[in-house]
Amino acid sequence: MIRNSLRRFSRSARTRAFRAGLLLFALLCTVDLISLISARQNQNLPAKAPDVRGQKIFIASIHWNNEPVLRSNWNQAVLGLVDYFGAENVYVSVYESGSWDDSKEALRALDNELGRKGVRRTVKLDETTHADELKQPATDGWIQTPRGKKELRRIPYLSKLRNVALQPLNSLGNSTKFDKVLFLNDVVFTTEDVTTLIATRDGDYSAACSLDFAKSPRYYDTFALRDSDGHEAVTSTFPYFRSKASRNAIISGHPVPVQSCWNGIVAFDAAPFYDPNHLQFRGVPDSLALHHVEGSECCLIHVDNPLTQSHGVWLNPNVRVGYSPEAYAAIKSASAWPSMGQSLVGVWSNRFWRRTTSTKIKSLRINGRLKSWTKGGADRSERGKFCLINEMQVLIENGWAHV
């Protein structure tokens, strides 16, 4: 009898605890829901796209096997930017190399259309393939890999291509000074996306980025994005960030303070790209890469940018682009992004992973390799520690690989 009473009491206690837990969870969800609704109501988004006409825009891009998106959206979107800003206020610099699809023909078609509109431009179509690059070993950018051979690093190679796209900026001399450098990935975008991005914080930034998606709702560019504390995103879905400042900003729909981003489209204040700063893309030194450490050129550019500290790097969550028409439609067709349900699930997922994961192991690993590397010479230093990851990336004939 006593035993049965104890069992009933135990079951009753568990039931009460379970109900109390459910009640607490429901209460917290309600608080989160109210906060999300309040944040959405206070976004104060402009009723129409901001007017940034009159600015001079240097448009740069690099391409490799991008024919489908070039023909379906990209070429026409670039022409739309020309129409908006005016041919006299735009320079288009495109560099393509080694594509085995029909990217060259697609870009020749764009070149012809730009010519008809009187746009100053450089459209360089290079026959050099990855296989050709791998036959021409040089000193810089080549390292001995664990596979027992000398291989070409991916990041210095990409840095070189991006710097080629930037070359006309200084060769134009003082005849034209551009206000913004706009780097476009092979993404689907509209003129409104670009004008909204350029108008981020009324133009007060060293760089402003979009959010990019290959398959919604997961964002794409995990390599370059770092929150305001220099951490990688804790989740690939909204609200993404580990740092409180970045997380609160994106929940509110406001420009997000970050230490680095790229994410499909990035607008830079053009001043640092001119002499004497002559800001350029780069990779980490080869001697550091030998320690199995890599960092994106699209992250390191913010480290080197002299305006980063004073004007900041910002991600604009109201500018979202896709790597295909389908991906773009998925993140633009909804009346509200993300939906309230996605927001609530995302907030809880983010909370869980923030509290059950740590950045300490990664930091200890990278710090240890940096310390070992710096012992090799007094001149060895790397300011972009938050960009660094435990990887080695090399070029191969049909793309790139981890080793």
UniProtKB/TrEMBL annotation:
One matching Pfam family: CAP59_mtransfer
Q: Say which species the protein is native to.
A: Imshaugia aleurites
Q: What's the protein here called?
A: Polysaccharide export protein
> Where does the source fall among the domains of life?
Eukaryota
Q: Which InterPro entries match?
A: Mannosyltransferase_CMT1
